[in-house]
Fold Transcriptional regulator.
Amino acid sequence: MARAGLTTERVTEAAAELADAVGFENVTVAALARSFGVKEPSLYSHVKNLKDLRERVALLAAGEMADRIAAAVAGRSGVDALAAFANAYRDYALTHPGRYAATQVRHDPAVVAASPAFARHVELTHAMLRAYRLEEPDLTDAGRLLRSSFHGYVTLETNGVFTHTREIRASWERGVAALHFLLENWSAASVRAGNV
Amino acid sequence: MARAGLTTERVTEAAAELADAVGFENVTVAALARSFGVKEPSLYSHVKNLKDLRERVALLAAGEMADRIAAAVAGRSGVDALAAFANAYRDYALTHPGRYAATQVRHDPAVVAASPAFARHVELTHAMLRAYRLEEPDLTDAGRLLRSSFHGYVTLETNGVFTHTREIRASWERGVAALHFLLENWSAASVRAGNV
DNA sequence: TACTTCGCCTATTGGTATTAGGCAACTACT
DNA sequence: AGTAGTTGCCTAATACCAATAGGCGAAGTA
């Protein structure tokens, strides 16, 4: 019997392709085996189980996304860097919905914590924020707010929560501009709000 | 054979309980039947299928969440209303992780669009924003940014993405204060950012 | 009490994840 | 080239889950 040339990398890559095509939740060992023209048990030599496969897809996507963001941000600073970061983030999520969904599900915290890809996201965020001259803990706080806003926006957008007739892209651009204003005036914004 | 007294409502409620206990993705017809002490096919008289069940849990959760937020915001305005909204949102998500996860997954857009629960979220957001005297399209843009930030924050928090030693709650409060500042200065923030 | 309705049952089918063990194809060494 | 060992994909089997069809007894109605 001719061999299919499976490797962990090729299986993970195919799973990512499948996720973008049919949705991350529909990535099954059976469907993946079919896409290779191979029987299901054959995949278990390359990935431990379905959970392992999904984690690998998530790490692959996080790494790819970090690459795109890094390329977009390179050579820019301030509002240019912020806009490049934000648009690279959203573009990746919209063009790779299955891979992006993989990064959304809750994985083993140990795997996430040990992953260089996720660490790069934090680093990229902090590098992009450098022009705003924030210091800790402002840097962490602002970074968390930014990533939350980006992540939340594309999630709500792809889940069809934004139903108003107002253009989704126009709202996005306005939101990014607003976040830029917020970062430039972060110290003024630090006055604690009532009984928060 | 004694009857178990199943109804669509009781089944949905039990599924929500189960989701909070074991995670939304682990809510199965089989596990739900076990929790009632009945056989699996018995549930199909009350819910159409698994997808239907999950949508019902999502709508239940969205409604409960809207109730909590409405109660928290009642009688408040401005920064008090914003903080009450934000904290009610986050508290619900953290205390009911399974139900909140149900609202995150992509459901049938027709079901979501026709749901009063999701419409109430938009209304509550707009009501809370009233004190900031925004007009369309600013109202929609600001509302989307707010909901994105809240949703993104609790999602990243529950998924264990925030690993820095900085307190997650402190960052949250700071983020809410920053959003308040942003809303108060929304028109100043409207200057379009470079090549966004 | 007889009849109807309806709730939960048994039986069954098909899909999926996962493990155990076998055989054939590739690799390396003589 | 021939052979030993390794590796890759296979068949077989188990267990769990979703979903449908049809039956039977319990609850409501005359």
